[in-house]
Design a protein that fits this description.
single chain; 737 residues; mainly alpha; 43 helices; 72% helix; elongated; disordered C terminus
Length: 737
């Protein structure tokens, strides 16, 4: 064996430089090929290993069980690489397995088990199951490989069933069995089974193993049982870096970022070796990316692809795309994950030119964009000018087969909805075979975005008839539609559905309910929902503050703001927009000035155009026109039509004709098509009895395409009848569940 290793070392250093053909002797023996295969395993080069295996067969050398063992090892090592092409790897693995069967070495349990493990790592679960059933003899390692394969690929219940079958057939699980099985139970719906396995581990003594405790700690953390995770962590006598990393990840997953940092500091204090997993867990625990980046450089992980990829994703996720892009450029080995993170960040910011550049770079580097990458791109297509690029991505999805993926189809439905072509979204939806809940949500949300609320309601009814149970996202989308058309009755029945079916009241669902009741004029119902929430999030507080303000309850809006601060929540720009609007509606000038100053000085925010427009409206409505003009002159941003329009509106209220004419000229230059401009000026002239000017303004309005009737509310009886029919159908269906 030592000669084989010597050959392997020689080929590791020489083969990449001069090529395989130059090294092959005239009559190579089997040891020669074994040395080559061993070097491929160490360099994680499965493609070269297969070429060597073919040369071995061509040279008439007879492969042994060691040959197949080394060949499989090279593939197993390669599955940990981010650059392996899994499609080709599956084909090649099947070819090798055929040779294994032909040569009769599949009778060796350890070789069949190694292949079983390889199929699991490649995601070929059906092949792994078939191979397992074919095995004449199995040992504990074989069972472990199948359980681990199921668990790794998300077949959680199958992994549990195999474990039960293993016990029935009289095999005694070992520590590795539990380490492979326990991750399958990291879901709230099967945590009971996880606790049963924990009990089995205690009874058999397997829970004393550090690896088992680490797996159990992670399982309880994923199920939000941090107390159990902490107890297990404390029970570990000799904590390895895996134990510490698991606990850091546990706190990070549950949003306890300060606790995660305390564990990390304790880990350093105990002088436990830090690895790249630690870095990844720290970033997932909301560690500051700049500080973590410095730590990565300091500790020598700047060349670790996983750590740098995680940093790129974190920078992109928090909006620091400049740092993310620079770090990506410095990466020696570009990968799909980091490039997808950049695409997602650019798309979220609407920078579609850079999105397209990144996509082209993927193709140039011969990366194969997956469903996640394509969906990230699709989310950025929001304007009519991007229709061509959106169609090109759709065509790419059809060409590569990615359109068979449910995620991609949902992304396409969402894209076409944003581009105003909901019919294409309907077409894609109807072509889908098995429609999952996420697909229904995509098309319902698309209808709401396109202003086709009645179609969304019909889809909801159809969804229920087919036996699908709407989730919180479905209901929230429909509530948004009810808010737009003021359809209170349907909104109330959606609320009843939520209560009757015990849907989890997520923050966004609670906020949608409150918003629907406010916009439908039922403030008392909105307040009732708000009071039932134990810990409202910031968005929910903002909705309630705005609702009170718009409904003429400005003092309640301000009390709500004070109560929110008492709860320890810090206001954002939307909060202040609601507060300032409330002050404007109530004519609370002094309070409005105080909150505007607080926004700038106490919270360090730069007021946007909407905040400034509220202040101008507040001052000018109260008769402080001169102060409002000075305010506009001192604004940090260029005033828009909303700011000037607020001033013009107040000129009409206070009959300030001269100032009104000056403002009208400014507004005309900014937006001459605005019907509001002409209506305000017409009313202002009318208040002064200047009827010739009224006629002149009305004529100008008609010439620009406006006729002054756009402010009329119109309800079509046929539409209401249609909605009532939908309402009745939905009510009948919901009463069945």
């Amino acid at each position: 064996m030592s000669s084989t290793r010597a050959i392997g070392h020689y080929f590791r250093t020489t083969l990449p430089r001069i090529g395989l053909e130059s090294l092959l002797p005239s009559n190579p023996n089997i040891s020669f090929f074994h040395g080559l295969l061993e070097s491929c395993g160490e360099t994680k080069d499965s493609r070269r290993a297969l070429i060597i295996f073919r040369r071995l067969l061509e040279s008439n050398a007879k492969p042994s069980d060691l040959t197949f063992s080394l060949l499989i090892k090279s593939y197993v090592a390669d599955t940990s690489s981010t650059v392996i092409d899994s499609t080709y790897a599956k084909i090649e693995a099947n070819q090798v397995q055929t040779h294994l069967r032909k040569s009769g070495f599949n009778q060796y349990v350890y070789l069949s088990t190694a292949f079983l493990d390889l199929y699991g790592k490649l995601g070929c679960i059906s092949y792994a199951q078939y191979l397992f059933e074919e095995m004449p003899n199995r040992d504990v390692v074989s069972w472990n490989a199948l359980i681990c394969g199921y668990s790794r690929n998300g077949y959680d219940y199958d992994a549990l069933e195999v474990f039960v079958q293993m016990l029935r057939e009289g095999f005694s699980p070992c520590q590795r069995t539990l380490v492979g099985l326990v991750p399958s139970c990291g879901r709230p719906d099967i945590v009971f089974q996880g606790k049963a396995i924990h009990g089995f581990g205690i009874k058999s003594g397997l829970d004393m193993d550090c690896r088992v405790k680490n797996a159990l700690t992670s399982m309880y953390a994923k199920c939000a049982d941090l107390h159990a995770a902490e107890v297990l962590f404390e029970e570990i006598y000799e904590k390895s870096e895996v134990s510490w990393n698991t606990m850091i990840g546990a706190y990070g997953q549950n949003g306890l970022f300060d606790d995660a940092m305390l564990v990390f500091k304790q880990m350093q204090k105990e002088r436990v070796e830090i690895n790249y997993i630690t870095i990844i867990n720290l970033l997932s625990a909301n560690a500051h990316p700049d500080s973590t980046h410095c730590y990565v450089i300091k500790t020598g992980f700047a060349t670790n692809a996983s750590a740098i990829t995680s940093l790129v994703c974190t920078y992109a996720g928090c909006g620091n795309l400049e740092s993310a892009g620079l770090l990506y450029k410095l990466m020696s080995q570009k990968n799909l994950v980091s490039l997808t993170a950049l695409i997602s960040g650019y798309a979220e910011n609407g920078n579609m030119d850079l999105v397209v550049d990144c996509f082209n770079q993927m193709l140039e580097l011969q990366m194969k964009p997956d469903a996640v990458a394509v969906v990230s791109i699709l989310h950025g297509f929001t304007g009519a000018t991007l229709v061509g690029a959106g169609l090109a991505i759709h065509a790419y999805g059809l060409k590569t087969g990615l359109c068979a993926d449910c995620l991609v189809v949902n992304g396409l439905i969402s894209m076409y909805s944003k581009l105003g072509d909901i019919e294409k979204g309907f077409s894609l939806f109807s072509e889908m075979g098995e429609k999952q809940i996420i697909s229904w949500n995509s098309v319902i949300s698309g209808c709401i975005q396109a202003g086709r609320t009645s179609d969304a309601m019909e889809l909801f009814c159809h969804m229920r008839m087919l036996g699908h149970s709407p989730d919180a996202i479905t209901v929230a989308s429909l509530l948004a539609g009810c808010s737009e058309v003021g359809f209170l009755q349907f909104g109330e029945r959606l609320h009843n559905y939520v209560l009757r079916n015990n849907l989890e009241m997520e923050d966004f669902l609670e906020t949608s309910l409150i918003d629907m009741y406010i916009k439908c004029g039922r403030l008392e119902s909105a307040a009732s929902v708000f009071k039932s929430i134990k810990e409202p999030c910031l968005a929910t507080w903002n909705t309630m503050i705005s609702g009170y303000g718009l409904s003429g309850h400005e003092h309640k809006a301000l009390s709500c703001y004070s109560e929110m601060q008492e709860q320890g929540l810090e206001p954002d720009r939307i909060t202040f927009l609601g507060v300032l609007s409330a002050c404007t509606h109530g004519g609370l000038v002094l309070e409005g000035k105080r909150y505007f100053q607080s926004m700038k000085e106490e919270f360090g925010m730069i007021p946007g155009l909407q905040h400034n427009a509220c202040m101008v409206d507040l001052l000018s409505r109260a008769g402080f026109l001169q102060e409002a003009l000075i305010f506009v002159k001192n604004m940090e941003v260029e005033p828009d039509s909303a700011v000037w329009g607020a001033l013009l509106s107040s000129c009409w209220i206070h009959h300030e004709l001269k100032l009104g004419e000056c403002l009208a000229k400014r507004l005309f230059l900014l937006d001459y098509n605005s019907g509001g401009l002409y209506v305000l000026m017409s009313n202002l002239y009318a208040s002064k009895g200047r009827w010739d000017d009224v006629a002149r303004v009305r004529k100008m309005m008609r010439e620009t395409g406006g006729d002054g009737s756009s402010g009329i509310s119109l309800i079509e009886v046929s539409s209401m009848e249609k909605m009532n029919n939908i309402n009745e159908n939905a009510w009948q269906l919901s009463s069945l569940h």
